[in-house]
Amino acid sequence: MRTDTDQKLRKILTDVLGLKPGQAEAFDADSGLFGSLPELDSMAVAGLLTELEDRLDIVIDDDEIDADLMETYGALLTFAEAKRAA
Amino acid sequence: MTPVLWPCPTPDGGETSEYALAFDRQRQQRLLIIPALFDEANKLRRLTVELMRRLDGAGIDCFLLDLPGTNESRSPLREQTLERWTAAMLAAANHFRAGHVLAIRGGGLVLPKVIPGWHYAPVKGASLLRQLLRARIIAARELGREETQDSLLLTGREQGLDLSGYALGPAMLADLQARLPVARAGITQIDQDLLGGSGLWLRAEPDEDAAQADALAAIISMRLTA
Asked: For chain B, which has fewer Cβ within 10 Å, the N-terminal or C-terminal residue?
């Protein structure tokens, strides 16, 4: 059973990456995100962070943003879960 | 679809020429379109023009404006403010004899008063600015340079800032921080839910969605051709 954060995160990535419906369902913890997707430039990452904040009702500080956070689906989900629990 | 020029007022009381993309067959219904701002304008350009093709097909003339200082404009972007853009939009509405206006996303921050119409997917100026600042911080970090939103804004207040390729002056930065989309009589808000699918401004790369263009065109043409 997926958590609410997990489901929302998949939806956000679908919207930001323009994925086909269902495609994000196949993500697992090791699925590569930002190293693997060249179209995610700084503007796109900034957009993603803003969407995460709006839809998960969290605030992300600038100093929390680093490349590791976005490297895999698992890393991003762990971060989002921790933020929502805080 | 042709590029046309329109006379745009300058702060010294003079006038300069700016471009618009026009479907103009001298029809009765004439719609002014204020584009999304900055990076979002690129992401939404195709949706906007696809909307215009549909409106043209439905018998509606429409005009997509270049905001002074953007696209083909010869006006310096650094000197622009939201007030100046609002005045420019009003001048364009008069020039093109537009009876209605559609503002897209941040375009709603420079809606001229009086003219009725629509605002698609409103956004706060502060949210747009925050995203631009963040993009700059992320890019700087990749180059091993540390910047923060506060330090950038402090510098920006004096010297302006280069954000995602847009050289914004101190006044524009202050305007963006403060400006909220205002609900106004005569302006109907169109939320993304009505279009189906997710907003194309969210996408990492510019994209298109024929169904969303259809939906937006239907909402507008139903009222204008009723």
From this structure: C
Please state, in angstroms and rounded to a whole number, the distance separating the CA atoms of residues B80 and A79: 39
ipTM above 0.90, yes or no: no
Residue B208 has phi, psi (to 5 degrees) of: -135, 165
Tell me the pLDDT tens digit for each residue of B176-204: 999 999 888 999 999 999 998 889 999 88
Would you tell me which residues 14-53 of chain A have a C-beta closer than 8 angstroms to some C-beta of chain B? Answer: 14-18, 37, 39-51
Q: Which helix (H) or strand (E) holds B187?
A: strand B187-190
Of B131, B199, B207, the CB nearest to A46: B131
Cβ-in-10-Å burial (0-12, 13-18, 19+) of B107 comes to buried
Cα distance between residue B16 and residue B88, in whole Å: 10
pLDDT above 90 (res B75)? yes
Global confidence as pTM: 0.92
Torsion of CA B194, B197, B203, B209, to 10 degrees: -90
Give the tens place of pLDDT for each residue, A14-44: 888 888 888 889 999 998 887 676 667 788 8
- Residue B187: both structure tokens together: 């302006």
Burial readout A5-42 (b: 16 or more C-beta within 10 A, e: otherwise): beebbbebbbbbbbbeeeebeebeeeeebbeeeeebbb
